[in-house]
């Protein structure tokens, strides 16, 4: 059963390997030295409290308009400036993120990606702090391999609500499997309200874009049957 929480409310998150996601903060200012985890985790935003099956990961779901970066989240960003040995990237947050030129698989000082202003990248938030600009990297932290991160070439960028992005990342959501069964496509979903789509022709790419906009909770919330009928009108 879902629980609604408000900013400042204590959250009963307890686990040996506890990981906090968006909307939760661990309060370390306990002068008595009390190690109780449940009393030190508070909500920083209003929304629905969620946790993984084993209780190790906790986060708050809400449909905020502006993306607030959190570590380990995947985002789709736009290069807006070359800064020294790296880049500044627009990820839809209050301030741009920084991306080091060496934060790519196999990158060296002599062999770095030649990104230009306007290029798209699929990246992971490596550092997120309210008093610092977020930092990105384009590889998996454990394997140091790209694992799908890096420059996104071609395709089309779709902007949608943050809630829609989280739905698309859910393996049980119907939309992407439904579209993938009809025609081949590549998709990179960022939790920052941006989805990159690449299909074999423009008509299919536009069809995917229109379907995402139609299913978006902020755009009508069309169900699976509605999408099937909608695709027929597009000839897909």
UniProtKB/TrEMBL annotation:
Keyword RNA-binding: yes
Superkingdom of the organism of origin: Eukaryota
InterPro entries reported for this sequence: Exosome_RNA_bind1/RRP40/RRP4, KH_dom_type_1, KH_dom_type_1_sf, NA-bd_OB-fold, RRP40_KH-I, Rrp40_N_euk, Rrp40_S1
Exosome complex exonuclease Rrp40 N-terminal domain segment(s): 18-66
Keywords: Cytoplasm, Exosome, Nucleus, RNA-binding, rRNA processing
Cellular component annotations (GO), alphabetically ordered: cytoplasmic exosome (RNase complex); nuclear exosome (RNase complex); nucleolus
Main location: cytoplasm
CDD domains according to UniProt: KH-I_Rrp40, S1_Rrp40
Record's subcellular location: Cytoplasm; Nucleus, Nucleolus
One GO MF term attached to the UniProt entry: RNA binding
Domain K Homology, first and last residues per copy: 155-202
GO terms classed as biological process: CUT catabolic process; exonucleolytic trimming to generate mature 3'-end of 5.8S rRNA from tricistronic rRNA transcript (SSU-rRNA, 5.8S rRNA, LSU-rRNA); nuclear polyadenylation-dependent rRNA catabolic process; poly(A)-dependent snoRNA 3'-end processing; TRAMP-dependent tRNA surveillance pathway; U4 snRNA 3'-end processing
Keyword Nucleus listed: yes
Family according to the record: Belongs to the RRP40 family.
PANTHER family for the chain: EXOSOME COMPLEX COMPONENT RRP40, PNAS-3 RELATED
The name this protein goes by in its record: Ribosomal RNA-processing protein 40
């Amino acid at each position: 059963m879902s629980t609604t929480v408000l900013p400042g409310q204590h959250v009963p998150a307890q686990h040996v390997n506890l990981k906090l996601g968006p909307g939760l903060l661990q309060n370390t200012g306990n002068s008595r030295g009390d190690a109780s985890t449940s009393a030190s985790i508070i909500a920083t935003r209003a929304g629905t409290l969620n946790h993984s099956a084993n209780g190790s990961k906790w986060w708050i779901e809400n449909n905020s308009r502006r993306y607030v970066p959190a570590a380990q989240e995947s985002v789709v960003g736009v290069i807006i400036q070359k800064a020294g040995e790296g880049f500044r990237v627009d990820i839809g947050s209050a301030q741009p993120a920084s991306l080091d030129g060496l934060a790519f698989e196999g990158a060296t000082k002599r062999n770095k990606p030649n990104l230009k202003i306007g290029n798209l990248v699929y990246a992971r938030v490596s550092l997120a702090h309210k008093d610092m600009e977020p930092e990105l990297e384009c590889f998996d932290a454990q394997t140091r391999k790209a694992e799908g991160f890096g420059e996104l070439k071609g395709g089309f960028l779709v902007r949608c609500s943050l809630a829609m992005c989280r739905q698309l990342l859910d393996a049980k959501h119907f939309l992407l499997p439904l579209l993938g069964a009809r025609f081949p496509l590549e998709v990179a979903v960022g939790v920052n309200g941006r989805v990159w789509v690449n299909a074999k022709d423009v008509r299919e790419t536009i069809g995917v874009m229109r379907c995402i906009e139609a299913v978006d909770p902020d755009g009508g919330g069309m169900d699976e049957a509605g999408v099937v009928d909608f695709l027929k009108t597009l000839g897909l």
